[in-house]
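Entry type: protein chain
Record version: 2
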Amino acid sequence: MPNKLETALEVDDLSLWYGEKQALNAIQLRVPKNRITALIGPSGCGKSTLLRCFNRMNDPIAGCRIAGDIRLHQQSILSGKEDLAALRRRIGMVFQRPNPFPKTIYENVVYGLRLQGVRDRRVLDEAVESALRAAALWPEVKNNLWQNALTLSSGQQQRLVIARAIAIEPEILLLDEPTSALDPIGTLVIEELMSTLKQHFTLVLVTHNMQQAARVSDFTAFMHQGSVVEFDETDRIFTAPRQRRTEDYITGRYG
């Protein structure tokens, strides 16, 4: 990673076990600020496990044990002293399948703000418009904010979930295969949205779609069997990988 880029997340010697099974092995990674970093690799290589470490979502899993460290702007998030709710306000997450709440579009967007105690209607109204605009959804729903979110299309629901995540202004947005349940048109909209969002947020994307990683990400980490094999600018990873295992995966020899 070029030295001139500011680092948002630092991963140092991170290992993780589920009981006796080791899922991550001594991960070293620097996630640059205001860029899209893609995690690619075959199924079961540890991509989603690593992503979930960034906002401590693996913690409740029985038998989960972690060694090493993750630092958010140079402060450890694994020291045991963190307020997890506060951490997850700083590091939001969007999952594979859209998961809007069975509430109105408006109430979905302000959900996190209400949890924080925000009650001022003007503040909430402004946050709704701002987040929906940022998620490229405002023109489609501005006249139907009190409609049930579950009536939206899958692609609209996923953009609503992104709006809900960014309404509380996180520093980092984690995206776990956010287009896997969408059609090609919905996928294109989300990909274009990601490119816009990196102006304001740091994005980390897990994807099985190598073409998607090549299209939207600035940096790519190739993972295999719980390790980061290679991390570099996306163009280099896809055109001139340094590691044979990376080249074999990119060219379809396995995976």
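Comment: The chain is about 35% helix and 25% strand.
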